[in-house]
Amino acid sequence: MRRISIGLFSLVSSVLFTACSITEQCDPERGTHCSFDVEQLLINDVQPDDPLSGLKIDYGVVPGFNECDDPASPYTCPPGTSCSTPAGSFASKGCVDSAGRFPTARSVPTTGVVLHVVFDSLLGKVTQYACDCTATGGVCAAGHEFSLDPFVCTSCESGACLDANHDGLPDSFALVAGLATIRCGDFAYTTLETDGEYVPGGNQFPGAQTGLAGLGPALVLRPAVTLPENSDCTLELSDKVRSKADVALSKPSQPLAFHTR
Ligand SMILES: [Ca+2]
Predict the structure, then answer these.
(1) pLDDT band at 13 (very low <50, low <70, confident <90, very high)
(2) How far apart are CA 186 and CA 121, in angstroms?
(3) Which residues surround ligand 1, an ion (CB under 5 A)?
(4) CA–CA gap between residue 49 and residue 107 (Å, rounded)
């Protein structure tokens, strides 16, 4: 009975995914879904742009925050910056330096850093699902801990994803390892499965309850690592980060950079 229900789910999901992939595919003639960009990088900082979320806009333009040509929400740029079109393909003017670059976060905590990366498209497979390893005492063999497909779990030794409550949906998921690397001088850290989550919801409008943390779709990285103090750092996203239409990520118009306390 369970096998049948899983089979049905995989059938339904493959039909759904197929339908989605058709509408999501890059179509150069229609100009849809053929580029894939980082829209914003938001980082927790001692001097946040938004006390609600504690986040600072490190890269990108956000209406109601650093968008400076919005008549509905007049905004004066901080000293050292002016209202101009940022380098890259931004539609709105933002507060940028003389080179057209965004002022980056300068007081990022060394522990508990949150890197909220907002994209202009849904992401492809950045989440994986825990295998059902109950037959082996809950311990999965190396390389067989997760399935990239929530319904077709053939990479699991048991052939099934963990579904203890039998609702046909995987119980536990994690990020794909190696989505991003933080470098601060000689220090380098590449993200693991447990270093955050993918949030497919959200849009380009800050939420009343969530503030800047409501922007999405987003990869919210919370690396369990202590960064070096008072250091210039960069965030590099790996080629594992692709759009749902399988388009490679464009290079941001300036390096994704920040400075720790
Ligand atoms: Ca379940």
Answers:
(1) very low
(2) 33
(3) 163, 165, 167, 169, 171
(4) 12
Check whether 92 has a pLDDT greater than 70.
yes
Whether 258 and 232 map to the same domain: the answer is: yes
Residue 32: which pLDDT band, with cuts at 50, 70 and 90? low
Q: Are 206 and 214 in contact (CB under 8 A)?
A: yes
- Closest by Cα among 2, 71, 39 to 202: 39
DSSP SS3 for 203: strand
Check whether residue 140 and residue 111 sit in a common domain.
no
Cα-to-centroid distance, 239 and ligand 1 (Å): 30
Cα(169) to centroid(ligand 1), Å: 4
Total domain count, the chain? 2
Full residue range of the structural domain in which residue 16 is found: 2-30+127-173
